[in-house]
Each structure stands twice: as structure tokens, then as C-alpha cells.
Automatic annotation (TrEMBL):
Pfam families: zf-C3HC4, zf-TRAF
InterPro entries named among the record's database cross-references: Znf_C3HC4_RING-type (IPR018957), Znf_RING (IPR001841), Znf_RING/FYVE/PHD (IPR013083), Znf_RING_CS (IPR017907), Znf_TRAF (IPR001293)
Organism taxonomic ancestry: Eukaryota, Metazoa, Cnidaria, Anthozoa, Hexacorallia
Organism of this sequence: Desmophyllum pertusum
Protein name: TNF receptor-associated factor 3-like
Record-level GO BP terms: regulation of canonical NF-kappaB signal transduction
Length: 206
């Protein structure tokens, strides 16, 4: 897990040394290198250049680091957990303020927390409280009833659905040129036509 996400004001006011050089977030489980640079514990894997020797390269000064040249900085960790910060969603209106150690406990239940839309393709983040409205009014991937076949179709696919697959959408019958017959029935009529033709041929042979 990368560092702690902060509100913009905290990102601007906290000293640079508290931020991970890799993820640029507030250090989580700070690790210090022998060249004096800090990374989150989980971000260190991104510095590894050679999987066998576990040789790492510092992003700041390109120093080559052996695993024993990187250590957990307990002092830095304590200092960071005691920093007083605003809720990550301050700009959305949350007034919570507290120590970093309590930050994620708060944000996980914060009323301004944004969650991804239930349709994975959508990718939009919405406040929990606004999700229903997003799904009903905004989401391009919401299900809507097709006015021709009454089926539930993803809104973004409605045009394709109408043009290619909707059994209720009017389609041109290439036998009689009528264009007001639902596609499903055009096929049906075609089948009937073929069957009639077949019977006709058979009667001629007989
Ligand atoms: Zn360094
Ligand atoms: Zn990091
Ligand atoms: Zn909050
Ligand atoms: Zn959506
Ligand atoms: Zn349809």
C-alpha cells in the first residue's frame, strides 16, 4: 500500500521530507536509505533493479543500495503518525481534523468518501450518498429499458443494440421492402417465406 493521501492544504504545508520519493504521498511505514532518502516500505520494491541480488537504485540520487543499506526509520514513523492533518476530503466539505494514525479510520467512513461507480467500465468516482443519483441520471453505463424490445440495455450500447441486435427495432425486410416490421419478425417472416418456397418447389416436383 502506497503512502497516505492528504488534502491539498496539507500537501502544501507539510515539510517535503515527510513525502515518499516514489509515490509522492505521505510516507507509510517510512524506510530510510543510506543516502538519506525516504520511501514507503511498500514502495521500495519499485527501486529494485536486479531481482536476484535485490540491488536497488535511489530515485533521488541514483545511488546503488544493497538491502542492508535501507532500514525502517522508527523515529520518522512515530513523527508522521502524530502529525495533525485534515480529512483527505476537506475540499469536498469535510471538517474532520486529527492525527495521521486516525486518518484512514476516519476516511473509510467519511460521508464525503468517494467510491467507484458499480459499473467497472465507467471509472467515475462518486460520493456514497450520490451513487444512486449517478446511476439513475449520469452514468453512461446505466441500464435503461429499450423502447422497442423492453430489454434492459447498458446506455452506452443502446445505439449498437438498436442497429444490430434489438429484436423489436424496426428493420427493412429485404423481401417485401417494408421497414416498419420489428427485426425479430423480419427473420421470422423470412423463415416462413423460405418454408413456403420449399413447399412450392416440392409440389412442382411431385
Ligand atoms: Zn538517495
Ligand atoms: Zn510511497
Ligand atoms: Zn472526512
Ligand atoms: Zn457510472
Ligand atoms: Zn431493444
Amino acid at each position: 500500500m502506497a503512502g497516505f493521501r492528504l488534502a491539498d492544504t496539507d500537501k502544501e504545508t507539510l515539510a517535503e521530507k515527510y513525502f515518499c520519493i516514489f509515490c509522492l504521498l505521505l510516507l507509510r511505514d517510512a524506510m530510510q536509505t543510506s543516502c538519506g532518502h525516504f520511501y514507503c516500505q511498500s514502495c521500495l520494491v519499485n527501486l529494485i533493479q536486479n531481482a536476484t541480488s535485490m540491488l536497488m537504485i535511489c530515485l533521488n540520487d541514483k545511488k546503488r543500495l544493497q538491502p542492508n543499506e535501507v532500514f525502517a526509520d522508527k523515529f520518522m514513523r512515530r513523527e508522521i503518525l502524530a502529525l495533525v492533518v485534515h480529512c483527505t476530503f476537506k475540499d469536498d466539505g469535510c471538517i474532520w481534523k486529527g492525527e495521521v494514525r486516525h486518518l484512514e479510520n476516519h476516511t473509510s467512513t467519511c460521508e464525503f468518501l468517494k467510491i467507484p461507480c458499480v459499473h467497472p467500465e465507467c471509472g467515475v468516482l462518486v460520493k456514497k450518498a450520490d451513487l444512486t443519483e449517478h446511476l439513475e441520471k449520469e452514468c453512461m453505463y446505466r441500464l435503461e429499458k429499450c423502447k422497442f424490445c423492453q430489454g434492459q440495455i447498458n446506455l452506452n450500447r443502446m445505439k449498437v443494440h438498436h442497429e444490430n441486435e434489438c429484436p423489436g427495432h424496426p428493420a427493412v425486410c429485404d423481401k417485401c421492402r417494408r421497414d416498419d416490421i420489428p427485426r425479430g419478425r423480419v427473420k421470422h417472416m423470412l423463415l416462413k417465406l423460405k418454408l413456403a418456397l420449399l413447399l412450392f418447389k416440392m409440389t412442382i416436383i411431385l
